[in-house]
Design a protein that fits this description.
By secondary structure, this protein is mainly α. The chain has 19 helices and no strands. The longest helix has 35 residues, at 293-327. Bound molecules: phenylalanine.
């Protein structure tokens, strides 16, 4: 079977940006930043992205381009001994949707209430009673899973590429309109100060690990998603340019999301450290007070839905591509089997806020446990291994891919020595 390919360079860029820009930017980034001191977190996060994460990102793109394989096959081809690591990446990418799609289900619910103009008086109360139910959150998460699965089911060009080309530009446009509106609010100045004026006394090692986890999560690094999308790229794609474009757009969108959210938070007297509920309680509370509550709320949650589904597609595709080759099944069968596995793990995750709220792992409910374990443990650990494998086990990676020039030498030294040491340090001191 001929290997699928993006139909153009721009489709590749849009798809990887679509993978990177998701709930990580709009839901996770503001709430984590709000909990970790605002500007100081933003600064750490930006430094980590610019100086650290660019290297594993390039590695994943190179691995995708060189081997043109799914994640498990690519690591097995580098060395059969590394096949287990390919599977660890796939396990990680299967665990992520088990909380991500729960949030997807919440989004569907909010779209529904704004669409039908059933806006509750008190969102805090509403959200806690809604999320603690059994059937509706469960049904909506599974619905979100099915909506996402349609695209990998249909294949690279007809499904994934089309979805991204339409949804991503629309998403960017909606976001900019909302951010411009937010900075005209009375609390904008305070919100922007919180976001951009660092307080260095809040700097600590746990925060650095959280910032690293967030940076990896938002760039979709550390579980093979970029390897998979990279494997569909055309031979002559410029990887370095692609990596910078990806980082630029992902960071820009996260920062615009912050510029949209924090002025709102301060204008309406909400605490920025409200946590995972920031988007689902504080923001709708604000929309409800605006002149056209159902329209603003609807636009916002549709925007969040687009962002979530294009990332969800890449999450599914990463696992689907490996299942197709490892189990020798059709794309449709692989998508079907994976949807069942993810669906089964997602159900207890949706129940974490009600029926199973007393069940805790390591002091966290099942949902938070999945979120924490993937972002703060698996992604940093996987990224460390990706750097070590790419640096030490792929012969002449930098010479062949970048060239024997200053850039190539620096990349090599960073990849082999500096980045692994920094990653080990951040992981150990953060835990
Ligand atoms: N980067 C995506 C986001 O920020 C999430 C994601 C994780 C996508 C892993 C693909 C793989 O929402």
């Amino acid at each position: 079977m001929e290997k699928a390919q993006w139909s153009s360079h721009i489709s590749f860029i849009i798809a990887t940006v679509g993978s990177a820009v998701g709930l990580g930017n709009i839901w996770r980034f503001p709430y984590i930043m709000g909990k970790n001191g605002g500007a100081i977190f933003l600064l750490t996060y930006l430094l980590l992205i610019a100086f650290i994460c660019i290297i594993p990102l390039l590695c994943e793109l190179f691995i995708g381009k060189i081997y043109k394989k799914d994640t498990v096959s690519a690591f097995a081809e580098i060395n059969p001994k590394f096949k287990w690591f390919g599977w660890l990446c796939i396990i990680t990418v299967i665990l992520i949707p088990c909380f991500y799609f729960v949030v997807g289900g919440w989004i569907l619910n909010y779209i529904w209430i704004f669409l039908t103009n059933r806006i509750p008086d008190n969102f805090a109360q509403y959200f806690s009673s809604f999320s603690s139910q059994v059937t509706i959150p469960c049904f909506l998460s599974i619905l979100f899973l099915l909506m996402t699965s349609i695209f990998p089911f249909r294949g690279v060009n007809k499904g994934i590429e089309k979805a991204n080309n339409i949804m991503m530009p629309l998403f960017a446009l909606m976001l900019i309109i909302m951010a411009v509106y937010a900075v005209t609010l009375p609390g904008a100045k305070e919100g922007l100060t919180f976001m951009f004026k660092p307080n260095f006394s809040q700097f600590n090692s746990a925060m650095v690990l959280t910032a690293l986890g967030q940076a990896l999560f938002t760039l979709s690094i550390g579980m093979g998603a970029i390897i998979t999308y990279g494997s569909y790229m055309k031979k002559d794609t410029n990887i370095i340019k692609s990596a910078y474009t990806l980082i630029f757009f992902d960071t820009l969108i996260a920062v615009i999301a912050g510029i949209m959210i924090f002025p709102i938070v301060f204008s309406f007297g909400v605490t920025p450290s409200a946590g995972a509920t920031l988007v689902f309680i504080s923001l709708p509370e604000m929309f409800a007070k605006l002149p056209f509550p159902s329209i603003t709320g609807l636009i916002f949650f549709i925007l969040l839905f687009f962002a979530a589904i294009t990332s969800g597609i890449s999450i599914m595709e990463t696992a689907v591509a490996s299942f197709i080759n490892q189990f020798n099944v059709s794309r449709q069968k692989a998508t079907f089997i994976l949807s069942i596995i993810i669906g089964i793990i997602t159900i207890p995750s949706t129940l974490s806020f009600g029926l199973l709220s007393d069940f805790s792992l390591n002091g966290k409910n099942f949902f938070d446990f999945l979120d924490y374990t993937t972002s703060n443990i698996l992604l940093p650990f996987n990224t460390l291994l990706i750097c070590l494998i790419a640096g030490w086990c792929i012969k002449g990676l930098w010479k062949n891919e970048i060239g024997e020039n200053f850039l190539g030498y620096s990349f090599n030294i960073l990849l082999k020595f500096i980045i692994p040491v920094i990653l080990i340090y951040v992981i150990l001191s953060g835990i």
